[in-house]
């Protein structure tokens, strides 16, 4: 992140997908959290920037939520893991990156905004065979996954469901990118 200062970066956005912890969140919903929670520490996103982004997309039939997010230390594979984290933190969703991003941005005095689309709902379970063949960055080991599918074709249904969920989440992020234009790039008016 020190490189950001040398590159004249003036703000940071944590952009991507998240896992729902709240049963109120559906796949494809948009989360613009006001608060990121990590191990009891609390980091607030730039409220005025988030309000301007929210204002530029509210009329686009997106389900927009505010609330808070927390960190997931590993893939949240089932409802029990998600509900346990929800009860522990009260956060609406979790991802693996936003806490580190906002903590670093704030340590450098940079405003930070978090924009996340819900990929998997509370009830979505990710089979162990899929997790086994996914690295810490979310990249699939395709040959290993194909071998698992050949041995257990029912995994295709879970993969298809995840692909549909990813499509919905990406569609939401594309709408945000198109509708926000300069608002997304300018943390202050």
List the keywords.
43% helix, 189 residues, eight-stranded mixed β-sheet, Rossmann fold, 8 strands, 20% strand
Description:
- With 189 residues, the chain is α/β, with parallel strands linked by helices.
- The protein has a single domain (2-185), classed as Nucleoside phosphorylase domain (Rossmann fold, 3-Layer(aba) Sandwich), CATH 3.40.50.1580.
- Helix content is 43%, strand content 20%.
- The chain contains 8 helices and 8 strands.
- It has helices at residues 2-6, 47-57, 79-89, 98-107, 128-132, 142-151, 155-180, 182-185, and strands at residues 12-20, 30-31, 35-38, 41-44, 64-65, 68-71, 93-95, 112-120.
- An 8-stranded mixed β-sheet has the order 4-3-6-7-1-8-2-5.
- Helix 3 links the parallel strand 6 and strand 7 (93-95).
- It is globular, with a radius of gyration of 17 Å.
- The two termini are 24 Å apart.
- The model has no long low-confidence stretch (mean pLDDT 90).
CATH class: Alpha Beta
List low-confidence stretches. Answer: none
The CATH superfamily label reads Nucleoside phosphorylase domain
Give me the CATH architecture, please: 3-Layer(aba) Sandwich
* Element order: H for helix, E for strand: HEEEEHEEHEHEHHHH
Binned, the helix content reads: 40-55%
Overall geometry comes to globular
Strand order, sheet with most strands? 4-3-6-7-1-8-2-5
Strand tally is: 8
Largest sheet: 8 strands, mixed
Structural class: alpha/beta
The first-to-last residue Cα distance is: 24 Å
* Total tally of structural domains: 1
Strand content: 15-25%
Mean pLDDT comes to 90
What is the CATH fold-level name? Rossmann fold
């Amino acid at each position: 992140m020190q490189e950001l200062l040398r590159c004249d970066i003036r703000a940071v956005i944590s952009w991507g997908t998240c896992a729902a912890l709240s049963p109120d969140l559906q796949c494809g919903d948009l989360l613009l959290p006001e608060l990121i929670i990590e191990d009891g520490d609390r980091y607030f996103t730039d409220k005025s920037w988030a309000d301007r982004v929210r204002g530029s997309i509210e009329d686009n039939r997106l389900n927009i939520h505010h609330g808070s997010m927390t960190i997931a230390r590993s893939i949240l594979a089932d409802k029990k893991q998600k509900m346990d984290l929800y009860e522990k933190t009260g956060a609406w969703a979790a991802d693996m990156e936003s806490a580190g991003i906002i903590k670093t941005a704030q340590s450098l005095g940079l405003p930070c905004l978090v924009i996340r689309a819900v990929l998997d709902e509370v009830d979505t379970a990710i089979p162990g065979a899929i997790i086994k063949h996914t690295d810490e960055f979310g990249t699939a080991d395709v040959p290993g996954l194909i071998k698992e599918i050949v041995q257990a074709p029912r995994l295709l249904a879970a993969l298809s469901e995840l692909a549909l969920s990813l499509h919905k989440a990406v569609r939401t992020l594309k709408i945000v990118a198109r509708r926000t234009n300069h608002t997304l790039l300018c943390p202050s008016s």
